[in-house]
């Protein structure tokens, strides 16, 4: 005869009790050994998990909540619903300017940087005299602080006696170029700055080039394949995971460009993006609204719009480009 207590306990394991049991099994496992290992794992990672929840998830949620409030960053906040978002999309002219400047910068600077990084990595993948020193020199700009780099480029692009204009005049130009002082040349100047810090991208692509099986090139050479055939049918497909990673990370970081324009154009309330706001990057405008204009709730709304844009573009990249990436094996 079956034990009626077992039947009753099974009937009780429904609803919230069943859900709790599933969570318990998912996080701690089914047997005693798995639960002991899981508890030790959570104990060792408790500090990281606490910091993640407190310093990442917490501000993440708070910023979403504050985007529906009018809050200067101190004192009481007043709930205004979606007014911040309505104002951004309907009446904020500088928002459209900042988004336009950032989009043009991202969709130009990132492909240029990856192309130059690939060329440099391909050159440095060969056995050259002093190649180790050259690799270190190309990687060095990636570890220099952004503030120091910004001051360096301010000196290089100085309108009258900067090294860049001195070089241009030495090549025969009669007039100097107002790199950071001219609305026409601000965006090309930042593209040059972004391309200069190609060290991290170059290292990743170089690692991908070093990982290509040399027998593939030997087989292609025996079959009579030309150099450009080997490039497009062997090299690029084999290093496509490295290129895709650099591409996605480059887009995400370029959308968050802040240090360079912040140092170069200052933090004033007016003309924060330089002449005609041609250097008004999105993150710079967000910083200006939060800490200069004292509109922290409005800045939170801007931050969440940027988050949605970055996530959307990343998803599109994974859907259309990620499916074409070749993963060996």
Task: Tag the structure with descriptive keywords.
2 domains, 329 residues, MetI-like fold, mainly alpha, 69% helix, two-stranded antiparallel sheet, single chain
Number of helices: 17
Low-confidence stretches: 4-11
What is the fold-level CATH name, i.e. the topology of the largest domain? MetI-like fold
Globally, the shape reads flat
How many structurally independent domains?
2
From the coordinates shown, what is the CATH architecture of the largest domain? Orthogonal Bundle
Q: Helix amount, in percent? A: 55-70%
Biggest β-sheet, characterized? 2 strands, antiparallel
Mean pLDDT: 86
**Content of β-strand:** under 5%
Intertermini distance: 56 Å
Order of helices and strands: HHHHEEHHHHHHHHHHHHH
Kindly provide the radius of gyration, computed on alpha-carbon positions and rounded to a whole number of angstroms.
Answer: 27 Å
Total beta strands: 2
Order of strands across the main sheet: 1-2
Describe this structure in words.
The chain has 329 residues and is mainly α. The protein folds into two domains: 4-84, no CATH class; 87-324, MetI-like fold (Orthogonal Bundle). Helices cover 69% and strands 1% of the residues. The chain has 17 helices and two strands. The chain has helices at 4-12, 16-28, 32-44, 46-66, 83-90, 93-124, 131-139, 146-156, 163-170, 186-196, 199-210, 214-222, 227-238, 240-255, 259-265, 282-292, 296-320, and strands spanning 69-70, 78-79. The chain has a two-stranded antiparallel ribbon. Helix 11 packs antiparallel against helix 14 (240-255). The protein is flat. The relative contact order is 0.11. The model is unreliable at 4-11 (pLDDT under 50).
